[in-house]
Structures are given as structure tokens and as C-alpha cells.
Amino acid sequence: MSVYVAMLHSIVLAPGRRVVMSDLRDMASTLGYRNPRTLVSTGNIVFEASEAAVGDIEAKLEGAFQSRFGKPVDIIVRRADGWLRLAQSNPFPDGDGSQVIIRVMRKPLATSVLDTLRVHAQPNQRLAVIGGDLWIDFAGKPSEWKLLSALTTKRMGPGTLRNWNTVRGLAEMIG
User: How far is CA 84 from CA 25, 66, 146, in A?
Assistant: First the structure.
């Protein structure tokens, strides 16, 4: 058995309707994944499964999600060892845990994306690509900065945002 982390791009199904984490755990169990557990109510799930290609697990989860909830959503999956490497690679350890944001990517980003994003960033915001994932120290509430609007799937490809506190919490769940 291997341990995996899966993150939904969005848990909003419709105005006023969100995915309940117990339903997400039930969905994972229905797929045969063992010991599904969630962290906070933002679509983070850790589970155990037979060794499989990450892309196959993503496709299985996305298909089950659409069948169960009636909405397509990108789901990004990482193996436990990959997640632990991500959690150890924070280039901004002095940043506030809720203001350092990681865009966890399905396909690795090239560092050239930083040039494109810097035009949207404020001088006090820091950006880095580590292991193909985008790290941002927003130096304030991310929702207050225009850089956030540049982080779309259309521009960057499938990925999902998590703050540093959540990344550490998932790493602790893995052990």
C-alpha cells in the first residue's frame, strides 16, 4: 500500500452548496481507497491505495467526483514521498503560514513563468518555482492582491492553491 494526497481545485458545487468532507471520504472509500482522512474543509484528502500511476488515480477520482457531485473538478494527486519533499522545500520559511501559498501543479511549471507573473506582483511579493510548483509569499492577504487573479488554470494549467499551513498539516498527517 502507498499513501497519496489528493487536493480538489474547488469544493464549491453551486452557490451556497459545497462538498462536505465526509462525502469526499465516502467517495474515496467507494473507489477502494483505504483510511481516507481529510484536513480542514477545503478538499484535502490523504488515503492509502495500491501502487498506481498518479494520473490514473487523478482520473479515477475526477470521474467519481463528477458522477457523485455532478460537476467536473481538477484533482491533483501526489505520492506521500513527493508531498514530504514539497513540504521540505519552502523557499520562504520566514513568511506567514497563511500568506505563503503554493500552487501545486499537475504538470511542472518552467521557471520562465516567473517573468510572466512578476508583472502582476507587488515589489514585496516573492515568487519561486520549486520542483515545478509555484511558491508565492503574498506578504499580506492573498485575496487583496491582483497576482491572485493571474493564477488561473487557463494561464498555468491544472493546479490548486494551498497555503503553507495546509501543506504542513498534510505532511503531518502522512507522518
Answer: 22, 29, 30
CA distances to 58, 109, 116, 167 from 78, rounded to whole Å, are 9, 15, 26, 12
Q: How far apart, in whole angstroms, are the C-alpha atoms of residue 123 and residue 136?
A: 12
Q: How far apart are CA 166 and CA 98, in angstroms?
A: 8
User: Could you give the C-alpha distances from 59 to 41, 48, 75, 91, 142, in angstroms and in order?
Assistant: 22, 16, 8, 31, 30
Give the Å distances, CA to CA, from 10 to 4, 136, 153: 19, 19, 12
Second CATH level (architecture) for the domain 2-82: 2-Layer Sandwich (3.30)
Could you check whether 2-82 and 83-174 share the same CATH topology? yes
Q: What's the whole-model pTM score?
A: 0.91
pLDDT digits (tens, 9 = 90+) for 36-79: 999 987 889 999 999 999 999 999 999 999 999 888 999 999 99
C-alpha cell at 8: 480538489
User: From CA 18, how far away is CA 101, in angstroms rounded?
Assistant: 22
